[in-house]
């Protein structure tokens, strides 16, 4: 079985407008390892949601994949080119191979249907043939798994549940059709810190016990350190750095990764040591020439303002996009 369950290959995603085209993701190649948690980290507008949406061909209108492809290497050995799936195949691919937990559980659940009705509807739509008893047993089992009082919650409407309970229902929903990958789009936004911690522990348990690969989108790099196995740091539609969490946090190589880490408060650290990154996230219609981070980077050299850095790959598959790490004439040190 291939080590990578998902391969984004030279993906560029455009939003064509009347007078211009916005390129939200620019020539990104990235792998999601089987059974592991990969985090996409970056500020709003960095391209992480657009990139992960391409995995289920769910890019918001009028976005299109302008270049590249997304390959899914299923656990059953089949290779799926997501772009080539027909509509019917795509409907099964979503939820049966790749499911998603959205950031706002409130709006993701149907307010006029009970949890039971929503779960049964999904099972029926995907043609899962089960008796009434089997359906109930399956739904109760996954609600129990996410540590909810299953017998009570299954007949609740969304408004009868707290924010944390709704998010756990959404996680149970994502497990309903036994997917191989779950996309988690800022899954704990709007939840209090204790519930956030609880949800991340639950997700980690699901990853380990069910061997489900996860692709997590977050702007909170502190979450990544304790939750993910791999990290891809996105900025201006590019992946600036990718590697194992251990390596990236130990070495803190890329100036943007360093900036994100330094901008994160720590419970045990001194608040005066927290340093926000100067400047603002880039205007995607007017990116700086050369390196897209050059107008905010404290290490920027002349070459950074002229030429976009190539990607430097290491033997272990990690990579970095910065002139400081390139040899020869490109070396901006
Ligand atoms: Fe900073 Fe230059 Fe590296 Fe970009 S290429 S991150 S501007 S040092």
Could you characterize what this model shows?
This protein has 333 residues and is α/β, with parallel strands linked by helices. The protein has eleven helices and twelve strands. It has helices at 48-53, 87-96, 105-108, 115-125, 132-145, 150-153, 163-175, 193-210, 221-227, 245-251, 255-262; strands spanning 4-16, 21-33, 37-41, 64-73, 79-81, 98-101, 181-185, 213-218, 230-235, 238-244, 312-313, 319-320. The strands form two sheets. It has an eight-stranded mixed β-sheet. The chain has a four-stranded antiparallel β-sheet with strand order 2-1-4-5. Helix 5 crosses helix 7 (163-175) and helix 7 runs parallel beside helix 8 (193-210). The chain is globular. The relative contact order is 0.13. Residues 328-333 have low confidence and may be disordered. Iron/sulfur cluster (SF4) binds next to loops.
Keywords:
binds iron/sulfur cluster, 333 residues, 8-stranded mixed beta sheet, alpha/beta
Give the topology.
Layout: E1 4-16, E2 21-33, E3 37-41, H1 48-53, E4 64-73, E5 79-81, H2 87-96, E6 98-101, H3 105-108, H4 115-125, H5 132-145, H6 150-153, H7 163-175, E7 181-185, H8 193-210, E8 213-218, H9 221-227, E9 230-235, E10 238-244, H10 245-251, H11 255-262, E11 312-313, E12 319-320
Parallel strand pairs: 3-8, 3-9, 6-7, 7-8
Antiparallel strand pairs: 1-2, 1-4, 4-5, 9-10, 10-12, 11-12
Helix pairs in contact: 5-7, 7-8
Overview in brief:
The chain has helices at residues 48-53, 87-96, 105-108, 115-125, 132-145, 150-153, 163-175, 193-210, 221-227, 245-251, 255-262, and strands spanning 4-16, 21-33, 37-41, 64-73, 79-81, 98-101, 181-185, 213-218, 230-235, 238-244, 312-313, 319-320. The protein has 333 residues and is α/β, with parallel strands linked by helices.
């Amino acid at each position: 079985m291939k080590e990578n369950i998902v391969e984004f290959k030279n993906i560029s995603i455009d939003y064509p407008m009347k007078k211009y085209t916005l390129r939200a993701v620019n020539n990104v190649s990235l792998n999601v390892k089987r059974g592991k948690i990969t985090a996409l980290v970056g500020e709003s507008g960095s391209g992480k949601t657009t990139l992960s949406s391409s995995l289920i061909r769910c890019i918001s209108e009028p976005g299109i994949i302008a270049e590249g492809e997304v390959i899914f290497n299923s656990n059953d050995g089949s290779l799926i080119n997501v772009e080539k799936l027909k509509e019917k195949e795509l409907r099964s691919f979503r939820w049966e191979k790749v499911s998603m937990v959205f950031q706002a559980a409130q709006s993701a659940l149907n307010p006029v249907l009970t949890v039971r009705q929503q779960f049964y509807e999904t099972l029926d739509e995907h043609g899962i043939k089960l008796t009434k008893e089997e359906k109930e047993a399956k739904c109760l089992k996954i609600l129990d798994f996410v540590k909810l009082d299953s017998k009570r919650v299954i007949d609740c409407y969304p408004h009868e549940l707290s924010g944390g309970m709704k998010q756990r229902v959404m996680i149970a929903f994502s497990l309903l059709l036994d997917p191989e990958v779950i996309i988690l789009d800022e899954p704990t936004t709007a939840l209090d810190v204790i519930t956030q911690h609880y949800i991340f522990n639950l997700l980690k348990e699901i990853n380990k016990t069910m061997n489900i690969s996860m692709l997590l989108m977050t702007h909170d790099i502190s979450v990544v350190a304790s939750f993910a196995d791999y990290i891809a740091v996105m900025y201006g539609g590019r992946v600036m750095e990718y590697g194992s969490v251990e390596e990236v946090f130990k070495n803190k190589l890329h100036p943007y990764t360093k900036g994100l880490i330094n901008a994160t408060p720590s419970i045990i650290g001194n608040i005066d040591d927290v340093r926000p990154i100067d400047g603002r996230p880039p205007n995607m219609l007017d990116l700086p020439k050369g390196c897209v981070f050059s107008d905010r980077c404290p290490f920027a050299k002349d070459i950074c303002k002229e030429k976009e850095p190539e990607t430097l790959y290491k033997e272990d598959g990690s990579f970095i996009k910065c002139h400081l790490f390139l040899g020869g004439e490109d070396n901006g040190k």
